[in-house]
Amino acid sequence: MVSQSKIDQAARLLHPAKHPSALTGAGVSKESGIPTFRDALDGLWARFNPQELATPFAFLQNPKLVWDFYEYRRQLMRPAKPNPGHRALAELERIFGGLPIITQNIDALHEDAGSAQVIALHGKIAVNKCFYNCQGDPTPVDVSKIAYDQNDGPPPCPHCGRKMVRPAVVWFGEMLPPAALAAARAVLHTTDVMLVIGTSGIVQPAASMPLLAQDSGAALIEVNPYESELTDRVDLWLDGPSGEVLPRLVAAVKKLRGNAG
């Protein structure tokens, strides 16, 4: 368990922040029982690799296979609820009057927990869009309003009629959504303290974002039970799971703010 002295040290770093922010990765979702992408490659899906299931080329080659895999992943995610780490970040947003969260996660649990300033770098698995973005990038499609045979793969786009509705997530080899990337970059230039939570620090461009924030003067507080590629660069490492560490950090910040008042 992270010592109280380290929690208090983190609170003292965070307490005076004018523009705090957070970057979250798969570790936060995993605490809610959501398997990582590679963990989901089990059972019937164990014989596949990511290039067969999560690239535009794979979808064009076998849209039903890819669609079925993402339906399977959606079924895995549906029971998941925000954990104490998600709720603590929402509480920090209320305390500071704002806390942009740049997330690599696609489950929308930050929003479910009450966070209002979420930048989903990799999209959202519960949302669908036209593969060709026929009405603009993106072209959202509400699949629940389309009558189609679910055993026959993805439904046709109601706008262009082509049978290529896909999950609105970022696949391997694709660029991040321009609007999300622009919003994230704006946060990196203005934040003064960034919480880096549950990310390996490997997947780009998210992995470099804390360092860009640091270059602009931000202090970095990492929350992760395991060392990441970023651990050696952060100002403080809280070596525990977010669901245990962040509620304690919220309590410590509240105590400082109460004493200051």
What does it look like?
By secondary structure, this protein is α/β, with parallel strands linked by helices. 38% of the residues lie in helices and 15% in strands. The protein has ten helices and nine strands. Strands 3-2-1-7-8-9 form a six-stranded parallel beta sheet, sandwiched between helices. Strands 5-4-6 form a three-stranded antiparallel beta sheet, with helices on one face. Strand 7, helix 9 and strand 8 (219-223) form a beta-alpha-beta unit.
Topology readout:
Layout: H1 4-14, E1 20-24, H2 26-30, H3 50-53, H4 56-61, H5 63-77, H6 84-96, E2 101-103, H7 109-113, E3 118-120, E4 123-130, E5 140-141, E6 165-169, H8 178-190, E7 193-197, H9 209-215, E8 219-223, E9 236-238, H10 242-260
Helix pairs in contact: 1-10, 6-10, 8-9
What characteristics describe this protein?
261 residues, three-stranded antiparallel beta sheet, Rossmann fold, 2 domains, elongated, 9 strands, alpha/beta, 38% helix, 10 helices, SIR2/SIRT2 'Small Domain', six-stranded parallel beta sheet
C-alpha Rg (nearest Å)? 20 Å
Uncertain runs with pLDDT below 50, 5 residues or more?
A: none
The number of helical elements comes to: 10
The CATH topology of the largest domain corresponds to: Rossmann fold
Q: Mean of residue pLDDT? A: 94
Number of strands: 9
Instruction: Report, as a whole number of angstroms, the end-to-end distance.
Output: 30 Å
CATH class descriptor of the largest domain: Alpha Beta
The CATH architecture designation of the largest domain is 3-Layer(aba) Sandwich
**Major beta sheet summary:** 6 strands, parallel
CATH H-level superfamily title of the largest domain: TPP-binding domain
Overall geometry: elongated
Order of strands across the widest beta sheet? 3-2-1-7-8-9
Q: Quaternary arrangement of the chains shown?
A: single chain
